[in-house]
Amino acid sequence: MILAGVSVLLVALGLVALMVVRSSSASPSGASSAARSAPAEDSVDAGFARDMAIHHQQAVEMSFIVRDRTDDEDLRRLAYDIINTQANQRGMMLGWLEIWGLPKSAAGPPMEWMGHTLTPTDDGSLMPGMATDAELAALTAAKGEKAEVLFLRLMTVHHRAGADMAQAAAGTAKTDAIRNLAAGMVRGQQSEIGLMADMLTARGVKP
Question: What span, in angstroms and rounded, lies between the C-alpha atoms of 162 and 57?
Answer without folding.
Answer: 12
